[in-house]
Amino acid sequence: MDPLSITASIIATIQLTGKVTSILWGLRSAVQGAKGDIARIIGDVNSLRTILEALVNLVETVDREAPSFLSTWRILSAPDGPIQKCQAELKALEALLQFTDKHGLKHFTKPFQWFVKKDDANRRLEALAKIKSTLQLALTTDHM
Asked: Contact at 8 Å (CB) between 94 and 24?
């Protein structure tokens, strides 16, 4: 994958973090009793976003002929690699947080929906944490 494609893929992932964060802020104000949980998730998603932004900066500034760049980016940008997995988990989290009824109307004010979906959200966050660790390792490897 060329650097422009890598950058575009990471930027698309950053945009997903923005969508998820926006939904979470709506939930935070609407779901009583879940502010702490939601604030933690917002922090986790923002932390992921920071790493993704650092990766974009790295792709734009690193020597693309360096062996560490080539091997690292080949792994990160591979089909079903960390970037694609990150996008998939964020899309799944976004869908999970969209509380809708049978008519497709959003109901952020139903606290029980949050508590039913909280465990699924936490599983998605655990998967994102593993991906985030891989991305952090990639940043560390390319800064050495």
From this structure: no
Range of the domain at 119: 3-143
> In the chain, how long is the greatest CA-to-CA distance?
54
Q: What is the pLDDT of residues 66-122, one digit of tens each?
A: 655 667 777 888 888 999 999 999 999 999 888 655 544 455 445 667 777 888 999
CA–CA separation, 32 and 117 (whole Å): 15
| Eight-state DSSP code of residue 31 | S
| Count of structural domains within the chain | 1
pLDDT digits (tens, 9 = 90+) for 13-49: 999 999 999 988 888 877 777 888 889 999 999 999 9
* Residue type (1 letter), 121: A
The residues, any chain, with a CB within 8 Å of residue 57's CB and separated by 6 or more, are none
